[in-house]
């Protein structure tokens, strides 16, 4: 039995050794990234039993990612290394203020070999939450959208909660393509974890009350709008709450904060915490992630979050 499962593409992420425009960066550190994978690692570090469905290239980078993910304690029984498809790459640019851009090399993704028929219904049935994102949908907007829809329909059939982070990457598809595809997934979604721009793109509205009304139309019961340094606004069937951000030690690299927030939100939901506590926990994780360089390196262990929120004493090791 898994608490959480997710499906998506992973990449070798090349983090620049120095800040500034990428065309002047001469060396990079080889790390691992990918929105769904970051989320899975975030959940595993919090102590959730987590599984990841994917395909990687049968190459050195694919083996490295597989070993890394296994080392993080994520179940990889639904991950295969496939011949003829290179493992995807992502080069990052990080500016002095911590903001950044990504440059993808993910055409012919190994996940092209992941088909509707390869989905393991039993694997989905035994989970509590299926988390999907718009990144995987965009990687192959025809096949993967069908795949996500199938995974969501299996989840619904077995009362598995479906969570969606639209994670809209306009380098991978247009606004119109993203809206059309993700709108077909929304009716199966129970939890929506989105940014303001993404909510506007999906629903054509930005005010929290309007977003909420749209979510209710789609039967979405829980969710949050992530507001960067302003924290997040969350909702459940009874209420809407805005919770201010937690002050990060330093903003070093903002990539991955949303995935970390998502992991924290889902963790809190699975503990049956009230919305206020869930948002505080998820905001704390987001603030911890932005203070570390790398997409998932800053994702905290449960104990680290509890020290940060003051619920646990720091023990020097
Ligand atoms: N500069 C920041 N200061 C404090 N918290 C932050 C900051 N940036 C992000 N966060 C936290 O991380 C969450 C996700 O970040 P955000 O940038 O909104 O999402 P995304 O990475 O999906 O664009 C925010 O809701 C907030 O809790
Ligand atoms: O998978 C992709 O396409 C990526 O861009 C990898 C990034 O690590 C995450 O997508 C970060 O996403 P945020 O948490 O929203 O900053």
Automatic annotation (TrEMBL):
PANTHER family per UniProt: CARBOHYDRATE KINASE PFKB DOMAIN-CONTAINING PROTEIN (PTHR43085:SF57), HEXOKINASE FAMILY MEMBER (PTHR43085)
Family: Belongs to the carbohydrate kinase PfkB family.
One Pfam family named in its UniProt record: PfkB
Domain Carbohydrate kinase PfkB per the UniProt entry, residue ranges: 1-300
Organism of provenance: Salisediminibacterium beveridgei
Keyword Kinase: yes
GO molecular function: 2-dehydro-3-deoxygluconokinase activity
Keywords of the record: Kinase, Transferase
InterPro entries: Carboh/pur_kinase_PfkB_CS (IPR002173), PfkB_Carbo_kinase (IPR050306), PfkB_dom (IPR011611), Ribokinase-like (IPR029056)
EC number: 2.7.1.45
SUPFAM superfamilies: Ribokinase-like (SSF53613)
Protein name: 2-dehydro-3-deoxygluconate kinase
Top enzyme class: transferase
Domain of life assignment: Bacteria
Residues that span the membrane, as ranges: none
